[in-house]
Amino acid sequence: MKESVATYSGSDIQILEGLEAVRKRPGMYIGSTGPRGLHHLVWEIVDNAIDEALAGYCNHIEITLLPDGYVRVTDNGRGIPVETHPKTGESAAEAVFTILHAGGKFGGSPYKVSGGLHGVGASVVNALSEHLMVEIKRNGKQYKQEFRRGVRLYPLKEIGPADVSGTTITFKPDTEIFTENTEFEYETLRTRFQQCAFLNKNLKITFGDNRDPENPKNVAYCYEGGIKEYVSFLNKKKTPIHNDIIYISGVMDQIEIEVALQYTEEYTNNIYSFINNIYTPEGGTHEEGFRSSLTRILNNYGKDANMFRKDESFTGEDVREGLTAIISCRHPNPQFDGQTKAKLGNTEVRRIMGQIFSEGLDIYLKENPATAKNIIEKALMASRARVAAKKAREATRRKSPFDSFGFASKLSDCRTKDPAVSELFIVEGESAGGSARLGRSSEFQAVLPLRGKVLNVERARIDKVLGNKEIISMIQALGTGIGDEFNVDQARYWKIIIMTDADVDGAHIRTLLLTFFFRYMRPLIERGYVYIAQPPLFKVVANRKTYYAYSDAELQRLLESFPKNTKPTLQRYKGLGEMNPDQLWETTMDPNRRTLLQVNLNDAIEADAVFSMLMGDDVNPRREFIEENAVFVENLDI
């Protein structure tokens, strides 16, 4: 019998017209059809409005969440052009909403700089919306057009006069596309809009949530000081070492540079860079120019002021300790490394940033010697701590699975060397570590027990961090290095699972570990390598069968499911060490039955504020947080 062969001919080549491609493969345009992609629809429309503000034609943007899942975005810009487009024969506004790569950002004249680069924003939102309506006020007239799933319901029509200009877009995400959820998260939107207001001085952004008419929420942001106020906002729960915020700006070759910075008593740094309002978490040439210039200028100042000892000088790590900085660049033609806009690639920006920032910082330091002295002394303390920590740093570079510092005795490694399948359980205490060692699958699961509580790295300089045996053990086990030498590609495990007791002490240890990963190994979190194990709280034995409950609510449901004459035996686990190895495997370590929480980093700036508040030296913000949130506590271990 002859085997059938699948044909591959011209008829197999599928051509998707109009917006069909967007609906067929939405992830190509918005990243995903989950919560991230859903919120991306709002970013696309709001970014278009901000482009009007960058061009100097808009000073107020209003976003409103409406009942029934609708979002409305209004700006007081020029209004989308309504004239007939020469190529389509329809209105230019319709082209914007129905044709990919149609917009005013390609010719170069309507927008000097723009965050929405690809011209797909409005059309993609239209394609992925169940219903979209655009209202335009322009040239003294008001126009309207509606679409359903990207298809127009009627041509653009004039509906009356208008005494102002602007654009209003109202849309409802399509449940056929966003099958997981179409509920917008208020806080996710609010923080992004506040950030946009910081980055665009004097732009007013109003945000309202009217989904619950009885409890509407409304906020408005407008910052005359722009990114200077942004730095002040980020440092409000920290202690600055100088009162004023250093601000430097300039324009060269049509590229605008803005930098605001302030040093605090913290030991870590927070540098956030933006290009045309787009956050670049991986930095790029604008951030590289800033970093190298900062190191060079502070070194020059320290030497000229005779503040160095013999052969002493700063590294980049030294001058960034305690620094909070916002870098904002506006470029008429930004180029990115990769599709995610995470890293700026324009080489000329490095030179321009370096020149503008170097000149500005040099002048500032000479005009403000008291502040300059505080900054240099802060960097000197970091430099001397770095030198003192050099031997400890060398010890963290793992050479083999059986090197010094008690590593071999602590880590029970797995047999496989494939990081994609390897798991590292970081376990609280030797007792739980023993159960985990015996209960694990040694083929792919490693166990590292920790003795006592890990050092709070939020309150310690790098020399103290690298002098902590528990932290050294973790660094050696992970194989990534630390600080400026950190390399996420060297990670030996792609699942790092924090397994602590389900009590207050366990939660504290978990927070200490997360603080360490966030401050010194953030890419592990960004890549999704960090997880939190979910051990059961209760063991229930009934009718010779064993059941586990992971919460009080689950326990209650379980007990209610038994017949009335059943008398179950109940055990409340106080710690992982109370569990037998087979129980720990069955409930917490078996990939087929366990529950893991993946640690995500959706907003690095917000996360930094939370860690500073929870783990920093300043008690007042922490007390305020406890007072505000104590009412929400349902279960408290005493």
What topology does this entry show?
Layout: H1 20-24, H2 27-30, H3 35-54, E1 60-65, E2 71-75, H4 92-98, H5 121-127, E3 129-138, E4 141-148, E5 151-152, E6 157-161, E7 166-173, H6 186-199, E8 204-209, E9 217-221, H7 227-234, E10 246-252, E11 255-263, E12 270-275, E13 278-279, H8 285-304, H9 316-320, E14 323-330, H10 347-367, H11 369-388, H12 390-395, H13 407-410, E15 423-428, H14 430-439, E16 445-450, H15 462-465, H16 469-478, E17 495-499, H17 504-520, H18 522-526, E18 530-533, E19 538-542, E20 545-549, H19 552-561, E21 569-572, H20 581-589, E22 596-598, H21 604-615, H22 619-629
Parallel strand pairs: 1-8, 12-14, 15-16, 15-17, 17-18
Antiparallel strand pairs: 1-2, 2-7, 3-4, 3-7, 4-5, 4-6, 8-9, 10-11, 11-14, 12-13, 18-22, 19-20, 19-21
Helix pairs in contact: 3-5, 4-5, 8-10, 14-20
Biggest β-sheet, characterized?
A: 9 strands, mixed
Task: Estimate nothing, just give the exact number of structural domains.
Answer: 3
Rg, Å, rounded:
28 Å
CATH homologous group name of the largest domain? Histidine kinase-like ATPase, C-terminal domain
Classified by CATH, the class of the largest domain is Alpha Beta
- Please report the distance between the alpha carbons of the first and last residues: 76 Å
Task: Compute the number of strand runs.
Answer: 22
Strand content: 15-25%
User: Could you name the ranges where pLDDT drops below 50 across 5 or more consecutive residues?
Assistant: 1-16, 398-408, 630-638
- Form type: flat
Structural class based on helices, strands and sheet pairing: alpha+beta
**Overall CATH architecture of the largest domain:** 2-Layer Sandwich
The helical percent reads: 25-40%
Mean pLDDT: 86
